Every structure is written in structure tokens, then in C-alpha cells.
């Protein structure tokens, strides 16, 4: 078994997250640690002020009887008080249990009881989802919580926490079944901060935006990494992202692919409504960006003529896009949680927005792989991050070993044993392979590989990616496990679909059009009249898209039938996770009747 690893990570000594924060408070007390919106204005807390708020709440928890190792849940949206509560629990020696704010009452109760949480920090709007027998405190009222504990007792408590002590129980998002609580130590987190910052460093006072769920390892790891380098975390809701980005002009940013896909779709939709000359200039510039991105990826120079085109395209198009998105000084945009379309990766990089893809899991405290800036390779998730070893098992499963790997699953010893090999490798449940440069190519979830009744294997992700290249397609799910052929459910780009309907005189019930605010802060159509997607002209439009994709697939991979859905996949219905990954088993269950129709003989 070939082992692939990046250079060793030079670390003088292991330390806890508590010590990491204290070191930054000592070295950069007056640098802004936190930024947040209040009455329409951005306000800031220095590292000194942040520490004081953490200390006050930690003293309250200690005075309330919280012992080392006790579990405390945080069930809330991403907001700066989330992190005050986080570090208050950690410095009191407690273990933070994260709960996604989008979960329903039953799911919340499962996590609280399974983790045996003593206390719950939440927001008033979520209070009714917390069972009455739990001790609850509201993040909106942290200033009211005061404890009679001496400074010496507080200092003794936070310093008593060791790097290998349990810091967090983070429940998996459950794309394939019941969530499991991954036990992550202080050192799991701290190690990953060291490793990631060696690739994409922050510097004191530099802003980055916290808007993705802190209940997930991805955003929380970036917050911790920022703390380790005295960066400034600016908090906002997803709907405030664009306003925040243009206000603070971040140097680093994390996203999930769906966000970049929506940004691209928004740009294309605006361009399509522009005069012919503007459209021509944009699509020419887009082609230049993609070519520049491809050259960058291969480590090649642009050459004289491409460089001239790039300068012109930057002046006419790229600079305006960066300005409108608030990305005028961006150094890296890390995309993870799912595969990004190659063309989008090339395009954004060619536009001067350096998008790099990574790979990780809850069980590895976020990343285990990351493409280096300037040496990115779309279609891969990069080499292992420094200090991590990886290998590919005989059946193609990705194996990971290193200091970021969890201790195991909370109260699930049998699951833990099944998840590790005898020699200590974490079995990720994902399939992959390494290219000639040691970059990992992600091939999908092991459980998601489709086996047709003919015995042929089909990987759904590459086919879905081909469908998503067409701007008329917003999402897709490939189906066929145990079936005679491949089919797909398609979520249209509803905005472009309605334009097509209006242009072609197709009648539909406009009252059934549902609009919501998207991650970019703009209004987004998420559902339409179901009769519209059954219209013959609409079916013919999407049949052409499917035929085009089929022309690039192997015979056994071709899509024989498809169904257009009248609404987008949603968090509320459990079809996607808080990090916008598709929960295939939920989607297949919900659209069971549609799927059966596609396989009727």
C-alpha cells in the first residue's frame, strides 16, 4: 500500500486551544479579534476584550458546578456570541457539543441526550426545540451571567486542560444515516490550525468572514486558525455576506461549491439580460479567464497574447466582479464539502479570485487535503496537508492517519472499531486515487457508487457535474443502484426556466412561484408551478441537455430517463445538510414515486 504524505510539520510543542488563545491575547491584545453587525454598523472586540468576555462566562460555568469533561451544547446560528460560549466552555474544562440550528426538535433532543449535555446555550427563537429538563442559557443574554470565582481558580482551570483532552463532540451530518458524535481533542483542532496556516496563512488584524455554520467543523476550524494568527473574524448571516464582504474586503474566505455555483449563476443571469455587446464582452472575457486558469493550473506562463487579453478582460469585466463581491484583496477562497465544477475553478482563478479545493471530514477536524495557492488542480482536492499521511485501500477507499484524526465516536465503540484499521488508519468511507503529483482525486462516497443490475459500476458525481455545466440546471441526482439503467432528477435554474416560459408563451400559475433570499443576499426562486415542468416544450429543452451530456458518457452511464422537479432541495425538508451536501437517501425516499415511474416497463 503506497503512503502519500506532505512534508513534515515542524511543531515545537503540543498545546490546547486555551493556550493558543491566551498566547494571542498576550501578543496582540489590541488587535481586533471579532467583528459583528449591530444596528446596521460593524463593531469590533479586541483580543483583550474577547478574552474578558470568555473569562466572565467561564467563571459563571465553573461557579455553576461545571466539571472538567462535562458536556455543554451550543445550538444556535453563527454569531459572535457562539464563540464566546465556545471558549468559555473550553477554558472551564468542558466539552462543546455542537448542534446545527436547522435540525428539528427530535434531532436536537437526540444529540442532547446522546451526548449527555448538562447545559445548552441557544437563542430565544430555538428555545421551544430544547426539552424542558435541560438547563438553558440564551446567547442574547450572556452579559447577565456572572459567577463568584477567583481569577486564580479560573487560571488554574483553563491551564489544567491538556492538549489530548476532549474538546468537542461534533455530530456527523448524516448523509447516509444516523448521526454519530466524533470526539475531537484540543490537539486535533490545534494541529490542523498549524497545518492549514502553513499553506494559507492569516496575519494579525487581517479580516475573514464567519458565516457558515459554526456547528460544523469547517467554519469552526477556520475561526480557530484565525485566532492562532491574531486575524479578525467578522461575523454575519449568510444573507449579509455580500454586504459584509464589500465592507471588510476579506483576505481569506471559505465556501461550499454551491455558493460559487450560485454566484456564477447570478452573474450569468444578469449578463443574459444585458445588451448584445455587453454579453459578447462578458463571454469573451469568461473564455479568457478559463484559459488563464488552465495555464495557471499547469504551471505555464500566459504568453504575450493571452496576457494582453487578460489585461483587457480584467479592466472590462474581472475587476468589476471582484469589486462587486468585495474580493479586491482576496488571497484564497477555500472550497470544500463537495466537488466544484472544473470550469468554474478555472474561471474564478483566471479572474483573479484564487479558488482552491480541499477535502476533509468531521472525523478529521475539517481538512486533510488542500490544493496549494498557485498550484491548484481542478478535479483534485490537493495533496495531504502537512503532517498527514494518506493511502488508498485495495477497494479504493481513502485512508487517513495523523494528529487531526478523532479519538472515536461518542458511546459507539463498535462503530469506532469498524472505522479504523488494525494499524490505525481512519477509513473515510470515500473513494479516491492519487494522480502523478500526489494530488487526491475524490471519486465519491463508497456508499453512493451505483451498481446497475448488469453489474456495471457508475460514479454519480462526474455525471451530475456534467449536467451542472449547463446554466439551466441548478442541481441533479443520478439514480440507478440495482436498476437496469441510469436516470436522474433535475432541479432547474428556475429564474432561467421562467424566462424561457415567458419568451415562449407557456402558461403557468405565477402564484406558485416561491422566492427566498439566497446565500449571496439576492432573491432566489426556489419553487414553481408543477405544471410548468410537465410542459412538453420544457421537457424537450431539458431532453437536449441530457442528450448533450450523454454524448460524453460511456454507454452504461448514459441517462435513459429524467424527471424535472418543481422545487429546489431544501434544508427544511432534510434533503441537504447545513453545509449544502445532498442527503441522497432522503431525496430518493421523497421522490420514490417519480423514480418508480422512470423504471416502469
Automatic annotation (TrEMBL):
<protein>
    <submittedName>
        <fullName>Long-chain acyl-CoA synthetase (AMP-forming)</fullName>
        <ecNumber>6.2.1.3</ecNumber>
    </submittedName>
</protein>
<feature type="domain" description="AMP-dependent synthetase/ligase">
    <location>
        <begin position="23"/>
        <end position="410"/>
    </location>
</feature>
<keyword id="KW-0547">Nucleotide-binding</keyword>
<dbReference type="GO" id="GO:0004467">
    <property type="term" value="F:long-chain fatty acid-CoA ligase activity"/>
</dbReference>
<dbReference type="Pfam" id="PF00501">
    <property type="entry name" value="AMP-binding"/>
</dbReference>
<dbReference type="Pfam" id="PF23562">
    <property type="entry name" value="AMP-binding_C_3"/>
</dbReference>
<keyword id="KW-0436">Ligase</keyword>
<dbReference type="InterPro" id="IPR042099">
    <property type="entry name" value="ANL_N_sf"/>
</dbReference>
<keyword id="KW-0067">ATP-binding</keyword>
<dbReference type="GO" id="GO:0005524">
    <property type="term" value="F:ATP binding"/>
</dbReference>
<dbReference type="GO" id="GO:0016020">
    <property type="term" value="C:membrane"/>
</dbReference>
<dbReference type="InterPro" id="IPR020845">
    <property type="entry name" value="AMP-binding_CS"/>
</dbReference>
<dbReference type="InterPro" id="IPR000873">
    <property type="entry name" value="AMP-dep_synth/lig_dom"/>
</dbReference>
Amino acid at each position: 500500500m503506497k503512503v502519500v504524505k506532505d512534508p513534515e510539520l515542524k511543531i515545537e510543542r503540543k498545546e490546547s486551544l486555551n493556550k493558543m488563545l491566551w498566547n494571542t491575547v498576550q501578543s496582540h491584545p489590541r488587535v481586533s479579534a471579532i467583528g459583528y453587525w449591530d444596528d446596521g454598523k460593524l463593531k469590533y472586540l479586541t483580543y483583550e476584550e474577547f478574552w474578558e468576555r470568555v473569562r466572565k462566562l467561564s467563571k459563571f460555568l465553573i461557579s455553576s458546578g461545571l466539571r472538567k469533561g462535562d458536556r455543554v451544547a451550543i445550538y444556535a446560528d453563527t454569531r459572535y456570541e457562539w464563540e464566546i460560549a465556545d471558549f468559555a466552555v473550553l477554558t472551564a474544562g468542558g466539552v462543546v457539543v455542537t448542534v446545527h440550528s436547522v435540525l428539528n426538535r427530535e434531532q436536537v433532543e437526540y444529540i442532547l441526550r446522546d451526548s449527555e449535555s448538562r447545559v445548552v446555550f441557544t437563542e430565544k427563537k430555538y428555545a421551544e426545540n430544547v426539552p424542558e429538563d435541560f438547563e438553558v442559557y440564551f446567547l442574547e443574554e450572556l452579559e447577565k451571567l456572572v459567577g463568584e470565582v477567583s481569577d486564580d481558580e479560573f487560571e488554574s482551570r483553563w491551564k489544567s486542560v491538556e492538549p489530548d483532552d476532549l474538546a468537542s463532540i461534533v455530530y456527523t451530518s448524516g448523509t447516509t444515516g444516523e448521526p454519530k458524535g466524533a470526539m475531537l481533542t484540543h490537539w486535533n483542532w490545534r494541529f490542523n490550525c498549524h497545518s492549514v496556516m502553513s499553506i494559507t496563512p492569516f496575519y494579525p488584524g487581517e479580516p475573514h468572514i464567519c458565516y457558515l455554520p459554526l456547528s460544523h467543523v469547517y467554519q469552526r476550524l477556520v475561526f480557530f486558525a484565525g485566532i492562532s494568527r491574531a486575524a479578525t473574524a467578522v461575523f454575519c448571516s449568510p444573507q449579509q455576506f455580500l454586504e459584509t464582504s464589500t465592507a471588510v474586503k476579506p483576505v481569506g474566505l471559505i465556501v461550499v461549491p454551491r455558493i460559487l455555483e450560485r454566484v456564477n449563476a447570478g452573474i450569468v443571469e444578469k449578463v443574459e439580460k444585458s445588451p448584445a455587446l455587453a454579453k459578447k464582452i462578458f463571454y469573451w472575457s469568461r473564455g479568457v479567464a478559463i484559459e488563464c486558469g488552465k495555464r495557471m493550473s499547469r504551471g505555464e506562463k500566459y504568453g504575450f497574447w493571452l496576457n494582453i487579453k487578460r489585461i483587457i478582460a480584467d479592466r472590462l469585466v474581472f475587476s468589476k466582479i471582484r469589486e462587486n463581491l468585495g474580493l479586491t484583496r482576496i488571497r484564497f477562497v477555500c472550497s470544500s464539502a463537495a466537488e466544484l465544477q472544473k470550469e468554474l475553478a478555472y474561471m474564478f482563478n483566471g479572474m483573479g479570485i484564487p479558488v482552491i479545493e480541499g477535502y476533509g471530514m468531521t472525523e478529521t477536524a475539517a481538512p486533510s487535503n488542500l490544493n496549494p495557492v498557485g498550484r491548484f488542480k481542478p478535479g483534485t482536492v490537493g495533496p495531504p496537508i502537512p503532517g498527514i499521511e494518506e493511502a488508498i485501500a485495495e477497494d479504493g477507499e481513502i485512508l487517513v492517519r495523523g494528529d487531526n484524526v478523532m479519538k472515536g465516536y461518542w458511546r459507539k465503540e463498535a462503530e469506532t472499531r469498524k472505522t479504523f484499521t488494525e494499524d490505525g488508519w481512519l477509513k473515510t468511507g470515500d473513494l479516491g486515487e492519487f494522480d502523478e503529483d500526489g494530488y487526491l482525486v475524490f471519486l465519491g462516497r463508497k456508499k453512493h457508487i451505483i451498481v446497475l443490475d448488469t453489474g456495471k459500476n457508475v460514479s454519480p458525481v462526474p455525471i451530475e457535474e456534467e449536467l451542472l455545466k449547463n446554466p439551466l440546471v441548478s442541481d441533479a441526482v443520478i439514480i440507478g443502484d440495482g436498476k437496469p439503467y441510469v436516470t436522474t432528477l433535475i432541479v432547474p435554474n428556475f429564474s432561467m426556466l421562467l424566462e424561457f416560459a415567458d419568451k415562449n408563451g407557456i402558461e403557468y400559475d405565477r402564484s406558485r412561484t416561491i422566492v427566498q433570499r439566497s446565500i449571496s443576499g439576492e432573491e432566489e426562486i426556489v419553487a414553481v408551478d408543477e405544471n410548468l415542468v410537465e410542459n412538453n416544450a420544457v421537457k424537450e429543452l431539458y431532453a437536449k441537455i441530457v442528450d448533450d451530456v450523454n454524448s460524453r458518457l460511456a454507454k452504461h452511464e448514459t441517462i435513459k430517463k429524467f424527471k424535472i422537479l418543481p422545487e429546489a432541495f431544501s434544508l427544511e425538508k432534510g434533503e441537504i445538510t447545513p453545509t449544502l451536501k445532498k442527503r441522497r437517501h432522503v431525496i430518493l425516499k421523497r421522490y420514490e414515486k417519480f423514480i418508480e415511474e422512470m423504471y416502469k416497463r
